Known about the structure:
This protein is α+β, with helices and mostly antiparallel strands. The protein is built from six helices and eight strands, in the order αααααβββββββαβ. The protein has a five-stranded mixed beta sheet. Strands 1-3-6 form a three-stranded antiparallel beta sheet, with no helix packed on it. Strand 4 (155-162) and strand 5 form a beta hairpin. Helix 3 (45-58) crosses helix 4. The protein starts with a helix and ends with a strand.
Amino acid sequence: MPEILKIAVSVGTPLSLLGLLVAVIYLAYMRKLSYDETKLKNLPPGQRGKQTDQYLTRYGIDGKNLSPEEKLALIRDELDKRHRRSRWYVIATTITFVVCFAIAAVSFWPRTGTAEDRNAYLDTNGTIIQPRESAVVNATFNASGTADHVGQGVYLWLAVEIDGRIWPKEAHVTVDQNGQWNQSVFEDGHPDQFELSLWAANADANDRLRAWLINGQQTGVYPELRPFSGMKRLWRVEKLRIAK
């Protein structure tokens, strides 16, 4: 029973919970029918007639002209019909519950990329067209370029780079249907000279980069990063400077 309750609580769809509730109700109803039938069989003959009339009235059966044996047979037949019908209801609601549970489980199942997905970033190519090398840019400037083979599980990042250390920028680079991308970059560190690099990352590296950004937003401190496994530099523009 604890296992059933645990599953029920974890199900994310109201329909599956409703199916479970209906199944439990019908199971209880089936047990009551079975109990009524057993109780009727075990009653003394003197009490059986009175109880039989009560059951006939409950089930809407006219048994005025029937003998006690015929009345008892009708009641047993009615109980048997209800028992079979309840069994089919239980089966139907159980199937509904299982289907809905399966849908919910598939929907929330962690999607772990295949080895091919995790290495797809290695096939990605990209360029930075703007700004060009040795350009003087404002603190907020526009960067643009191209990218191809950006497959499933591949994420593009821009980063300011100084001596092999990187500071990723906030937004993912989005590539349009023509293989072009355009991104606004804000650099408030005001280094004398820096580089702008375009990176491809797999899902694991992307999670690490996002975690670094979130931590920086919460603390106001953005420590330097070194490129790590799951990242590939696609392009780098050198000798950029911030206009003063």
